[in-house]
Amino acid sequence: MPQNVKDLRSFLGLAGYYRCFVRHFSIIARPLTELLKKGAPFCWTDHQSQSFEALKAALTSAPVLVLPDFKKPFTIETDASGIGVGAVLMQGCHPLAFLSKALGPRSQGLSTYEKEYMAILLALDQWRAYLQYGEFHILTDQKSLSQLSEQRLHTPWQQKVFTKLLGLSYKIIYRRGTENKAADALSRYPTVNCAAISMVQPRWLADVQASYITDAHAQDIIRKLLADDQSVPGYTFSDGLLRYKSRIWVGSGSDPSN
User: Fold this and answer.
1) Helix 5-17 vs helix 25-33: angle between axes, to the nearest 10 degrees?
2) Residues of the chain where predicted confidence (pLDDT) is lower than 70
3) What are the residues facing 84 on neighbouring strands?
4) What share of the chain is helix, strand, coil (3-state, %, to 5)?
5) What is the pLDDT of residue 74?
6) C-beta atoms surrounding 220 within 10 Å
7) Which residues contact 220 (CB under 8 A, 6 or more apart)?
8) Which CATH number fits domain 74-188: 1.10.10.10, 3.20.20.70, 3.30.420.10, 3.30.2130.10?
9) Is 81 helix (H, G, I), strand (E, B) or coil?
């Protein structure tokens, strides 16, 4: 949980990178963004906690994370910072899993070059089962890593990564650090590991969530509940679903034929 404005900005930076996949992102994140306003005190209440948990649930469930399609190529985006390393497994621009690891005092003393190798090693160990069936790409902001196969293996880190990549069909691609936003956010946020493939979610739940968009009454209730979860008796809002007395509320914008 964020301890200050800097931590909160880091979390919202990662979440916002995938906001196009999160329904009602602005509504859910509003209690958190209120803390970023100039002059606003950093006061963490139950409203912020609910918003924080809702965004975490949204990031680790469909439609943000999807199940892998082995007919499409995989991409790994990696990054390293002074305090940690991070990686994202993707297909196209859609994330499948996130991975981050905080570095101990000994690892923090490694060079940025060596930390980038560590990020690749962690990603290969975690997701090798998905990468061994076809060519995949590794995106890194260390330009020298893109010539790994053409370099003489002078360092132990080079040898470790090269050994892990043997037998795999891959291509290492240089990409500027400003474009590696998701992996960058993970590597700079000192959290525990988060590496999970999403669970299957019934399609009708997505239809129910979509029904709230054109339902003004449902939108009004959701806004009130996000501001105060006790403001509308009988109603609750969690995991993107509105419930009345524990029963899922279906908005008027739903298709009656479904």
Assistant:
1) 170
2) 20, 23, 62, 146-154, 177-202, 253-258
3) 102
4) 45, 15, 40
5) 94
6) 11
7) none
8) 3.30.420.10
9) coil
- Closest-CA residue to 215 (of 254, 171, 176, 158): 254
Number of Cβ atoms within 10 Å of the Cβ of 143: 10
Tell me the per-residue pLDDT of 163-208, one tens digit each, with 9 for 90 and over. Answer: 888 888 888 888 775 555 565 565 555 444 444 444 555 677 777 8
CA-to-CA dists, residue 147 to 53, 81, 135, 161, angstroms: 41, 21, 17, 13
Rounded Cα distance between 258 and 251, Å, is 13
Both structure tokens of 56: 């975490």
CB 112 within 8 A of CB 148: no
Domain ranges of the chain: 1-64, 74-188, 202-258
Joined together, the tokens standing for residue 99 give 């991975």
Chain mean position to CA 122:
17
Q: What is the pLDDT of residue 186?
A: 59
